[in-house]
């Protein structure tokens, strides 16, 4: 028992270190790309010079000064701004600083963007957008996940039937992403038969009262959720069905069947339980997918979530916001992978803690 | 090679695979036709837009769609000096030339716009032009009189004075029979004439006139807000989409497999490095990275392709291939190959990779539409290659101009239909291939 615990500790320690380095490198790469390898700084420097020059020119208090003195003043101001943003240091030094800050979740202040409440804190901006993304993608993905698993389980029992074949025939429809179906849903249900709004999260102005507000949000969610559902459901059912079929042809299932056990007992005890760990894995990975949102779907439906935020941040070249979103995503993914390693061991005694090595 | 041929033969049992192959063949044929009929540089030039499109209507739907629903929307009609009856009278130092631009208007709906293009080759003094509209009944409606420069575009449908006189927008008023106070203006079909009377002040001067009565429909694909014929983009989008999808799919799957095999063979730090790289890559979200590169660096489609391939190489697939290759590594025939002194490269390329190549085929076919849609997705975000006409760019323009809101359905539907067709074709083939080549599915 003690030996097992020690092993577990060593294993999780190694995993944690490996995952941490993964996150560090991933985040550093993002910092590097988001700063164009330091080029953003030159752009910013030019921008500062411009702004200061404009400011000095526009201020009547400086008009009477001799031009040399004015130059000097401008130079001073630029220097101040450069020092504030620490642009005088080499990019490599600062990028390491960025990295340390990002890893300690000190996300800093945004350069261009601000939250709707007016805050400049990156954390605030991200937190404000998070509920929208989680609401929309959580609803859609949970729906897809549970419908797919249960439909697949029942289809795998009815293998070869008409229903089974028609679902399989529909699987290629998932070649198109959700935003693609979104466009058609907008065309059909917003413009031809105006039942649902074509974008946004609540109607403007937002309705008074909790229930009316919720109703409005649900109405706005209908089309994007439907788009994601259509885009993913058939392929999910297809892959889960294949998965269950492979597992239901295992010897122990045949054995149980030969013993004459009732169907739902076979389903629950002999098929569902041994396959629980892959199911949990994909469930967790699906949850992780939530955090990043979907840039295009949110764009098409004008949904104020993380995807839209990231897109706007990139458009504004607002590096702190970009890095903030990626850092959070990286952390969440790493934590999930770590949790998964443990869950496997708990759910599936066949998986050894050592990860399969003898 | 027999398992391959066997696999291909059993593919015939799947009707969906046959349909998929048919769709792919049609797309490839379209792609070849596009590349042959419109050279690459020509396509870029056409898509940049400009004067070459001035004879086409703005936002016109496809002809067939209109006729399908029993519509009778007008096509564009042109009347040029070359076909016009010309009368000339010479006076002292002045020459008066009268051109009658005649055309037949058989439609029951109004044109969308009326423009007159004038080109004069005078040297010193600009000619003076007076234009008048002659209805089928012979009524004459004066339009305007003015001096014209070397090349002039007279927008008759935006002539405010004329609109006030007629009581309707000119393109409606000029084609209406009823009194201007009638509720619903009725189209009057028949022979129309635009009388162009030019006063030339020079001996040799000539005036070329072209009257364009813009229709509401054009060609089989319609036009966009810049008067560009959408058929260019729909045609040329095909080779671009196929090339992007194919290159990205081949590039990622083949290199992924090779790298996985190398890692499995050498083990140790090589394998560990590959595994760590994969884990880092999984943390980097693909689309945001692409958006970043598109916004900050360049939106060239080839750069995007490169990034997609690089990020795609160390994908989750590497772990899957590794799991498949690990038992192969220990197979007796590899042992045998080693004992007769086969090189590492030879073992990887000739003994390990071919064993799981069949598994790769379906993956690779189903990956193609993913990348086709990825390219379209980037274009829809406004990060499409600025010079290339692609389906995604058409969708982006349509979204940008709120095509659905204005009812220009064709603008969204035709590129979407092509994208969907591509997706379905490859996916149907891929799924069938999966059932043929994937040993675990074979007995199901």
TrEMBL record, chain B:
GO cellular component: plasma membrane
Record carries keyword Lyase: no
Membrane-topology annotation of the record: Multi-pass membrane protein
SUPFAM superfamilies: MetI-like (SSF161098)
Domain ABC transmembrane type-1: 242-430
Subcellular location: Cell membrane
Predominant cellular place of this UniProt entry's protein: membrane
InterPro entries on file: MetI-like, MetI-like_sf
Keyword Transmembrane helix: yes
GO biological process assignments: transmembrane transport
Keyword line: Membrane, Transmembrane, Transmembrane helix, Transport
Ranges annotated as spanning the membrane: 14-36, 233-266, 286-314, 356-374, 408-433
Gene3D superfamilies: MetI-like
Homology family: Belongs to the binding-protein-dependent transport system permease family.
Protein name (Swiss-Prot/TrEMBL): Oligopeptide transport system permease protein OppC
Protein source organism: Halorhodospira halochloris (Ectothiorhodospira halochloris)
